[in-house]
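My main concern about presentation is that the manuscript never shows what a single data entry looks like. The format is easy to grasp once an entry is in front of the reader. For illustration, here is how one protein appears when written out as sequence plus structure tokens:
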Amino acid sequence: CRMWWQGAAAAVLLLGAAAGNSSPPAPANPRNFIAFGSCSKPRLFQPWDTILSKRPEMFLWTGDAVYTNHRHPAGSVAALTEALAEQTANPGYRHFAANVPVDGVWDDHDLGRNDAGKDYPHRTAAQGLFLNFLNVSRTDQRRRQAGVYWARRAYHGRLQVIALDTRSHRESYYLPSVGGVGWLPFAGLVAALGRCVTAVLGLGQGYTGDVLGETQWGWLERTLTEHEGLDGHQRPELTVVISSVQVTTTNPVFESWGHFPAARRRLLALLQAHRPTGLLLISGDAHIGEIAASAAGTRGTLEVTSSGLTHSCVSGPGGSSCEPMLQLFAAHRQQNGGATDYFTGENFGGIEIEWPARRFTVSVFDLEGTTVLSATRSFDDPTTVADAGLPSIFDHRGLRGVIIAAPVALACLGRLIPCRRRPGRMNAPPKRE
């Protein structure tokens, strides 16, 4: 039978937002917990029992729920179909999804190809497969639109989740990625090197490539306008925005909004203009756990990354360069007051909401369920976001950028060289604000 908290969570989700601007009734439970995670390979160990032990009331995929294998041509619908079927059949996940509501967004691998964007030819077929995987209703708006973005209220309208689709309409990089070229050895690492060198040399600083597409931009602005309490809509107390790729990072190696500077400025300006209350950004993709702040000061709006559930950046070729790279590109974490606010082991994330205290705590957990990173914010903390940009030898940081250039090249090159992995995990010590 279904666990008791799943029934309670489902009821809360179905209730949605109460009409009007009056104060909503308090949730039956003064504390609620939402889990999230990304980057899961169907054939590797997955920590669903550990996540279930946290008693989440919903789980949010922040991308890469599956990875395809090599039995089918790279980027084919057959490969994606098989991967999603394998994940669905995983006993741990099947039990978890039968007891906890699951939703979320995709990233490149569950779209169907590494580093994929709007140029991926099978997007329509992949969208149907992905929505079936999530058991999305046939009447859901996502069944009628191009893209898997969505927004929903929960806990009597006190929480709003805004899920962005950063793949379906994303244009190519300034230097087009080779990450999805099946015949190229270490294609993903070659693509990472290309992103890194492009950013550090200052190429593409004026690039106007888009991430969301105009239809999704219009939808996002309407959603944020409703958030303001206009048109009879109740203003949420906590707003969670999902982006499969990182928004505020200054690390040029990873895929991120930073490689699309005009789009990132547009997103951050939109958030700053509408100032959603209790804003929290969550992301995946990077194969690390991380806490960053998007503006200087310890109360800047948080972005928390949880990736991956089954593998991390220290796995496989070039893994020993992961931690030096994270230490080199630390500006977005230093803004949060802790340059070591990262974790390089497998992980999942969680948001604990304390309604009476008007605060939330967002954490990254290891596979045993131990908290390795954590930060707390008030619903009343101001929405403070700023665009730091990716490091470049030509940016305003001047000499610092030049000094960075040499080790940057070595760090990027290290991503291409199969290195011996150090024994054990390279873990940052637990940190809590």
